[in-house]
Amino acid sequence: GKMMHLFVNKFHTDMTPYNSLSIPEIFKFIAKIPYKPDPKGHELIQRPGITLRIGGDCDDKAILAACYFMNRGIPYRFVAVGQGNKLQPIKKIPLTHVFVEYKINKRWVDFDATYNYNTLGQQEIYARSVII
């Protein structure tokens, strides 16, 4: 989580050309960027400008969204989630996915543009959810 915040603070200007897009437009734009998983066994984070050019995984797309929200002055946060199973203690459920929530009218709205089939504001139910 710390590295993701660091990348947003350092490279948010990579997303400046997209500041004029509305939230639904930037959602569609990020969702259409090719999903590119990290190499097996490695968790990589890349600069937003690179994700824009070659695609990226959930954390890379979450960073793009966070940069957009930072540029627009809209509060945002990263949410890491995992599915697990009913028998696992919550703390043992691995966090396998991350996305952004943004705040509007005093409530947090899901912004998970990882895949092209995702919907803006769609509340998925996860067994474990941690703000990072």
Characterise this structure:
The chain is of the alpha+beta class and 132 residues long. It has four helices and four strands; from the N terminus they run H-H-H-H-E-E-E-E. The chain has a four-stranded antiparallel sheet with strand order 3-2-1-4, with helices on one face. Strand 2 and strand 3 form a beta hairpin. Helix 1 packs across helix 4 and helix 2 runs antiparallel to helix 4. The radius of gyration is 14 Å and the shape is globular. The chain starts with a helix and ends with a strand. The mean pLDDT is 95.
Summed up:
The protein has 132 residues and is an alpha+beta fold. The protein is built from four helices and four strands; from the N terminus they run ααααββββ. A hairpin with a 2-residue loop joins strand 2 (97-104) and strand 3 (107-111).
- The computed structural class is alpha+beta
Low-confidence stretches: none
Number of beta-strand segments: 4
Q: What is Rg?
A: 14 Å
Look at the structure and give the mean pLDDT. Answer: 95
What characterizes the major β-sheet?
4 strands, antiparallel
Sheet with the most strands: spatial strand order: 3-2-1-4
Write the layout of secondary structure elements.
Elements (H helix, E strand, L loop, with lengths): L1 H10 L11 H10 L15 H7 L3 H15 L3 E7 L14 E8 L2 E5 L16 E4 L1
Antiparallel strand pairs: 1-2, 1-4, 2-3
What are the salient characteristics of this protein?
single chain; 132 residues; alpha+beta; 4-stranded antiparallel sheet; 32% helix
